[in-house]
């Protein structure tokens, strides 16, 4: 019996080269879907390109609270219209220097841009740099969707087996997330796989092969394929490794790994 693996690309909409690479892989059947960043000026064009794939691919909302343009404009979260770095986000929220209502307004703006451009709610929600695990974002998820009969799926926490430092940090941030969100009626995709040091691009292929061999069907493998362009160079430090990820996902080698494991890439209708 063929086993399915869920492969989700982050960062659709971050830059045209990233979006083009993701659409290419979706067309090849090498991705289950992708999470969209809706705050950039190119979003309307990117949304028009991915809209025909709704139903065929899982199209999610990749909530963004760090480093990029604030969709809601200046606030205590983004005093000059730019979102803070991750290191300066979590503690100020807890100490009250960033107003929770301003965080929620930013998330509302990103969600609204998704719904307006794609004609309906996202299939799932996750977070850039895992910000959806922050308490302030959990509060938003419960406030917006808690009473809804049709809740988006959520990306859950990584597994606890064989934790390295990076996985352990994410697992700590996500403590209690799976349990509380399931209790509220959300479907949670877990365990999360695909975590590796992207400064060592050679590790991507082995990380994905391990997931093909062992990731359960309810889990999710996150990846970051893309083509490097000038816009990406201005916006994000994760660059050349995106080409490495794209090349392997598009390769015959990856296809052979799936065949050997008796696996297939889950489609977005699953």
* Number of distinct helices: 11
> How many distinct folded domains?
1
CATH topology: TIM Barrel
Q: pLDDT under 50 segments (min length 5)?
A: none
Radius of gyration: 18 Å
Let me know the number of strands.
10
CATH homologous superfamily identity: Glycoside hydrolase/deacetylase
Q: What is the share of helical residues?
A: 40-55%
Structural class: alpha/beta
Helices and strands, in order, run as: EEHEHEHHEHEHHEEHEHHHE
Order the strands across the largest sheet as they lie in space. 7-6-5-4-3-2-9-8
- Reading off the top of the CATH hierarchy, the class is best stated as Alpha Beta
Description:
By secondary structure, the chain is α/β, with parallel strands linked by helices. 41% of the residues lie in helices and 14% in strands. It is built from eleven helices and ten strands. The chain has helices at 16-28, 43-50, 90-95, 100-118, 135-145, 165-173, 177-183, 203-214, 230-235, 240-249, 252-261; strands at residues 3-5, 7-12, 33-36, 58-63, 124-127, 153-155, 188-189, 192-193, 220-223, 263-265. The strands form two sheets. Strands 7-6-5-4-3-2-9-8 form an eight-stranded parallel β-sheet. The protein has a two-stranded parallel sheet with strand order 1-10. Strand 3 (33-36), helix 2 and strand 4 form a beta-alpha-beta unit. Helix 8 (203-214) packs parallel to helix 11 (252-261). The model has no long low-confidence stretch (mean pLDDT 94).
